[in-house]
Amino acid sequence: MSSLDIVGLCGSLRADSVNRMALNLAASLMPDGMRMEAVEWREIPPFDGDVLAKGLPPAVLALRERIRRADGVLIATPEYNFSIPGVFKNVLDWVSRGEDQPFANKPVAILSASPGPVGGARVQYDLRRVMLFMNAMVLAKPEVFIGGAGAKFDAAGQCTDETTRKFVGDQMRAFDKWVSAVKRMS
Ligand code: FNR
After folding, report:
1. Which residues form the pocket of ligand 1, taking CB atoms under 6 Å from any ligand atom?
2. pLDDT over 90 at 186, yes or no
3. 35 alpha-carbon distance from chain centroid
4. Residue 99: partners with Cβ closer than 8 Å, 6 or more residues away
5. pLDDT in tens, 29-54
6. Theoretical Cys-Cys bridge with 113: which of 22, 57, 103, 182, CB 3.0 to 4.6 Å?
7. Class of domain 4-185
């Protein structure tokens, strides 16, 4: 049986984030041997080239190191104005700096949730573009867009929608195979 360590990143800082609920749902549906640790990034400062010139801040170094150690990264992010939330893009910008940036050849899976009908579909394509620049190995399919998310999770953050559970479970099984396949290639 495989033993895969996955870093979970939520693109939202909100305590009641539906994307954090989706991330936790995905973790609960991972196949045996795959486990996710949700990693917080609130301490990462706004990107500033003058700060970078003095060295990567400790919170950035810690996140880079955690990603480097992981077998894969799972991202659940909201869509803000059809794109990546600025605070989360800021995190990706910091992590991308330096020659040994940790997303290179790293298996990544993406999902998104929104109260709106499209489930954050548009942010995923912007995020895929950013990940492409960083040479990440992003799982192509199945895609997961959780629309109408407010009605699909209860007050405790548990998913009450069987269809959503099936889509997310299918994605996690595909991610498990993808992470193992990328590891075999490298
Ligand atoms: C939004 N929201 C939103 N939703 C969407 O489907 N497409 C969009 O383009 C936007 N744009 C947007 C911009 C900003 C600045 C905010 C604050 C919100 C709504 C968004 O999906 C909703 O607030 C989610 O609940 C945010 O995700 P979390 O924090 O619940 O994970």
Report:
1. 12, 14, 17-19, 78-82, 114-116, 118, 120
2. no
3. 14
4. none
5. 999 999 999 999 999 999 999 999 99
6. 22
7. alpha beta
